[in-house]
């Protein structure tokens, strides 16, 4: 069941072994006929109580317990019982609200901590300069090229990394340094080759001049 069912309401099913099942609505009855486990369906009372989402120990819950004790009909007793049911329902609802507030206390802080961790782990995907900062610089008269140069010259802000993120960042920085060193070595090699070619050409020119003399 997923909600309370008052007497004479809902659906009653009696099995061959005389076991009685009461359902609050057709949705619960249909899932029972499909032989689904109520502890695995998140909208049932059984799941919510097992997961600690609802009260399981409370004095108001004892009034709803079924008692197979015959009672002679008395009009005054029935009137008092109905009033007591309403009063117990109000008390239970108030306690459920308090229970919910205690259970959800600190949820906002946990969500903020999770969001901050996600941003810290994926900071390399974020733009280096905020849009509001770019807008302010444009209002001061700077062009997009100047803003781009400022972004390139900005130092990287070291942020707290979690888990293997530090290793990945360190490896990426090492690879960048290695690529820069390789480019410098290649440029130096090309410069040396150009100097040698210039020297060879100068020597050939000198030989030609001597032959002409």
UniProtKB/TrEMBL annotation:
State the superkingdom. Eukaryota
Biased composition (Acidic residues) is annotated at 174-213
Output the GO biological process annotations, alphabetical, semicolon-separated. assembly of large subunit precursor of preribosome
Enumerate the residue ranges of region (Disordered). Answer: 150-213
Which UniProt keywords are listed? Ribonucleoprotein, Ribosomal protein, Ribosome biogenesis
Q: Where is the TRASH domain positioned along the sequence? A: 2-36
- For the keyword Nucleotide-binding, the answer is no
Coiled-coil positions are none
Keyword check for Ribosomal protein: yes
Cellular-component GO terms for this entry: nucleolus; ribosome
Q: Where is the composition biased (Basic and acidic residues)?
A: 153-168
Under the GO molecular function aspect, what terms does this record hold?
A: structural constituent of ribosome
The UniProt entry's sequence similarity note says: Belongs to the eukaryotic ribosomal protein eL24 family.
Q: What is this protein called?
A: Ribosome biogenesis protein RLP24
């Amino acid at each position: 069941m997923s909600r309370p069912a008052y007497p004479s309401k809902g659906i009653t099913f009696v099995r061959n072994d005389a076991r009685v099942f009461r359902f609050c609505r057709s949705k619960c009855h249909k899932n029972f006929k499909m032989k689904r486990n109520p502890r695995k369906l998140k909208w049932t009372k059984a799941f919510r109580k097992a997961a600690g989402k609802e009260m399981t120990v409370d004095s108001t819950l004892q009034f709803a317990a079924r008692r197979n004790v015959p009672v002679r009909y008395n009009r005054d007793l029935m009137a008092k019982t109905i009033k007591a049911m309403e009063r117990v329902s109000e008390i239970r609802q108030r306690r459920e609200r308090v229970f919910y507030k205690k259970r959800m206390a600190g949820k906002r802080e946990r969500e903020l901590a999770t969001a901050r961790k996600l941003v810290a782990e994926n900071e390399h995907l974020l733009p280096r300069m905020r849009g509001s900062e770019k807008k302010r610089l444009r209002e001061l008269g700077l062009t997009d090229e100047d803003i781009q140069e400022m972004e390139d010259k900005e130092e990287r802000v070291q942020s707290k990394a979690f888990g293997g993120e530090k290793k990945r960042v360190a490896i990426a920085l090492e690879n960048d340094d290695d690529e820069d060193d390789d480019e410098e070595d290649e440029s130096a090699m090309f410069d040396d080759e150009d100097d040698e070619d210039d020297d060879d050409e100068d020597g050939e020119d000198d030989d030609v001049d001597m032959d002409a003399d």
